[in-house]
Amino acid sequence: MTKPFDIEELMARVHAVLRRSSPDVGQVALGMVAIDFRLRTVRRGREEVRLTHREFELLRYLTQRQGRVVSRHELLREVWGYPDTP
User: Fold this and answer.
1) Which residue of 4, 21, 30, 69 is 20 to 30 Å from 11, comparing CA positions?
2) Residue 45: helix, strand or coil by DSSP?
3) Which residue pairs from 67-75 have beta carbons closer than 8 angstroms and sit at least 24 positions apart in sequence?
4) What are 34's strand-pairing partners?
5) 66-86 pLDDT per residue, tens
6) SS3 state at 48
7) Could you read off the pLDDT of 23-80 as tens digits, one per residue?
8) Mind spelling out the 3-state secondary structure of 12-38?
9) SS3 category, 49
10) Cα–Cα dist 20/14, whole Å
């Protein structure tokens, strides 16, 4: 980043780095749905479910926070990388 920089942009970049470096869960099974985070695949029974990159990252984020309420603001910040807004 070049100086001067916006503090919100810095925070968004720090969040993105932390998100990418957080430990991954290898696989998760939810009923008939199996998610393999290492191979980036989702299966429902024997059928593969095709997801875009963003859809998969959203699924990963929500899976890591099972049982928690996640706000739209948090999703925009953590998954989409938008800076915090006042």
Assistant:
1) 69
2) coil
3) none
4) 29, 43
5) 888 999 999 998 899 888 765
6) strand
7) 556 888 888 999 998 899 999 999 999 999 999 999 888 888 888 899 999 999 889 9
8) HHHHHHHHHHCCCCCEEEECCEEEECC
9) strand
10) 10
Residue length, the chain? 86
In this prediction the pTM is 0.65
Structure-token match 């593969």, residue found? 48
Sheet architecture: strand order including 47-49: 27-30, 33-36, 41-44, 47-49
Measured CA to CA, the distance from residue 70 to residue 73 in angstroms comes to 8
Please list the residues that pair with 30 across neighbouring strands. 33
40: left (phi over 0), alpha (psi -120 to 50) or beta: left
For residue 69 the two structure tokens come to: 């309420």
